[in-house]
């Protein structure tokens, strides 16, 4: 009813209030305590509070910038994969197996406008030009860095995978030196250390997480006395998974890190340039696998690019005849259509319940260009790009109790019949940049045991990975299994042979009837893969009799 809807609206807004508002806003505190029966007046008061707070955020960052406490970077205005705008052939240079869109067109002029508009906005907000830039998705190549240098950008950041491919080396300590290309300083992030914050530490107690972080920093320092460590995280994604929105973690982390030597990016860039190593070339790619495959190569992604090229070619002559004001609006639609997020959601590697809306919004920008140019809209712009698909097809829930002999082999056809299954070969990927080792996860249980099976390349699994953690949402501590040929201890059994099979005594479940589980599989470089990629699976200890029939 209307009362429940109003409660939902207020609770939704409160859920997105960060720690500062929860601790300092009397309005937010009182509404959190109220919990239900919110009125229209409550909602309006909360909205008014939030609208007054939001304009204070950027000036606060500006004051920290002026004091030298922080550095601030910018990003090309509409978050495009800039190397692909400049030259789509760059995707094939990065990964020769990438299938390119047909009849590609250089959008280098648009790439320049994406950078110009970002700089203009930065100057408007902070009163000075930016010196640093985070390329959208860490996507770099030689031409884009040349463009950045021409625009006055002095430093950029990306992933260490780019450095390893540039130097044709798999060494893990390369990123601790200082590098530049075309006189632009490049910060290459420590991938495992950064991903520990983004993906691993949310499962740990704050003290343990910070202790692990500092221990690994100390190990780097012992191996490299002059090491420069760059920790770069896609910051808006991780904190909602931490307890207390990561406030407790941050306070402990900042306190620990303050005892080390830390510098802002601007001050780091100001260090003597003699200490930099000049890269003779730069491998093109992003911070996801060191390629551009997340944004081009699959049929849906390529179709979106092809429609942009089509619109550019067909409307160009008419657009040049428009008045300057209308040309500016056309440009805005083109720049918006080049945002990386459209191509992220197209294709089979990611899933959203709002694919139809994304698709419609993307095509609406190109439709608007034709309309502004006074041209008929091609019929193919009214056709869906994305194909209907259902992520549920990659998941099957348990149907029957299991009786599994944990021996690392499929003992019989019936052994895993009726198990739950998640097909990770079809599931959408995460941003952690780790190649997927798990192809399928099977799971199930009986009266006394819980059973799991991972379909993997066992030889690679044993050589590269060190442990499996089972994170049950309802249990205080993770259950940890070492990656080894065979392990058995205290109700835990694991065997790696043709596949990975392991079992857990239900005594660990603390008599709970429903648990929510996600596996964390950590390699020897402390990078983690999470299974399932889409989040937790529900493990229920139910009566399966409803699944039987005669």
Entry summary:
By secondary structure, the chain is of the alpha+beta class.
**Overall body shape:** globular
* Mean pLDDT over all positions: 89
Terminus-to-terminus distance: 43 Å
Q: If you compute it from the alpha carbons, what radius of gyration comes out, rounded to the nearest whole angstrom?
A: 26 Å
CATH fold name of the largest domain: 7-stranded beta/alpha barrel
Q: What's the level 1 CATH class of the largest domain?
A: Alpha Beta
Look at the structure and name the CATH superfamily of the largest domain: Glycoside hydrolase 38, N terminal domain
Spatial strand order of the main sheet: 7-8-9-10-15-14-13
Total number of β-strand segments? 18
Largest sheet: 7 strands, antiparallel
Note the total helix count: 19
- Low-pLDDT residue spans: 428-434
Number of domains: 4
The quaternary structure here is single chain
CATH architecture of the largest domain: Alpha-Beta Barrel
- Fraction in helix: 25-40%
Beta-strand content bin: 15-25%
Category by helix and strand content: alpha+beta
């Amino acid at each position: 009813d209307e009362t429940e809807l109003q409660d939902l609206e207020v609770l939704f807004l409160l859920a997105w209030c960060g720690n500062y508002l929860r601790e300092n806003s009397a309005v937010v505190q009182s509404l959190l305590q109220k919990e239900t029966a919110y009125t229209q007046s409550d909602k309006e008061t909360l909205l008014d509070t939030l609208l007054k707070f939001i304009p204070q955020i950027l000036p606060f960052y500006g004051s920290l910038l002026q004091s030298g406490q922080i550095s601030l970077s910018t990003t090309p205005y509409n978050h495009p994969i800039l190397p692909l705008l400049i030259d789509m052939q760059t995707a094939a240079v990065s990964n020769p197996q990438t299938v390119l869109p047909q009849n590609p067109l250089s959008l280098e002029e648009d790439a320049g406008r994406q950078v110009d508009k970002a700089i203009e906005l930065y100057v408007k907000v902070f009163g000075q030009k930016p010196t640093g830039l985070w390329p959208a998705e860490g996507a770099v190549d030689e031409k884009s860095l040349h463009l950045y240098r021409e625009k006055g950008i002095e430093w950029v950041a990306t992933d260490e995978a780019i450095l390893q491919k540039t130097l044709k080396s798999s060494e893990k300590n390369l990123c601790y030196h200082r590098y530049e290309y075309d006189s632009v300083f490049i910060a290459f992030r420590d991938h495992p250390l950064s991903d520990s914050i983004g993906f691993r530490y949310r499962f740990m107690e704050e003290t343990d997480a910070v202790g692990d972080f500092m221990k690994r920093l100390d190990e780097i320092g012992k191996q490299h006395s002059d090491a420069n460590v760059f920790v770069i995280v896609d910051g808006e994604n991780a904190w909602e998974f931490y307890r207390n929105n990561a406030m407790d973690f941050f306070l402990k982390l900042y306190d620990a890190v303050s005892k080390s030597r830390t510098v802002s990016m601007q001050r780091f860039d100001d260090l003597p340039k003699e200490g930099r190593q000049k890269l003779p070339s730069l491998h093109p790619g992003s911070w996801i696998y060191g390629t551009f495959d997340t944004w081009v190569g699959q049929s849906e992604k390529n179709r979106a690019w092809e429609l942009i090229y089509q619109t550019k070619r067909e409307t160009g002559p008419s657009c040049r005849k428009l008045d300057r004001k209308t040309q500016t609006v056309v440009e805005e639609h083109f720049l918006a259509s080049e945002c990386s997020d459209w191509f992220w959601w197209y294709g089979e590697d990611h899933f959203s319940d709002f694919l139809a809306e994304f698709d419609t919004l993307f095509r609406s920008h190109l439709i608007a260009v034709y309309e502004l140019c006074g041209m008929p809209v091609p019929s193919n712009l009214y056709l869906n790009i994305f194909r209907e698909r259902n992520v549920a097809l990659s998941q099957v829930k348990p149907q029957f109790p299991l009786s599994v002999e944990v021996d690392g082999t499929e003992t019989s056809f019936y052994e895993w019949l009726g198990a739950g299954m998640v097909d990770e070969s079809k599931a959408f990927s995460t941003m952690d940049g780790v190649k997927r080792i798990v192809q399928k996860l099977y799971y199930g249980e009986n009266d006394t045991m819980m059973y799991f099976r991972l379909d993997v390349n066992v030889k690679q699994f044993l050589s590269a990975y060190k442990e499996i953690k089972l994170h049950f949402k309802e249990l205080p501590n993770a259950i940890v299994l070492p990656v080894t040929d065979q392990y058995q201890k205290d109700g835990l059994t694991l065997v790696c042979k043709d596949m990975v099979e392991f079992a857990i005594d239900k005594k660990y479940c603390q008599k709970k009837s429903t648990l929510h589980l996600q596996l964390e599989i950590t390699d020897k470089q402390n990078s983690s893969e999470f299974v399932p990629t889409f989040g937790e699976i529900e493990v229920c200890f139910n009566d399966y009799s409803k699944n039987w029939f005669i």
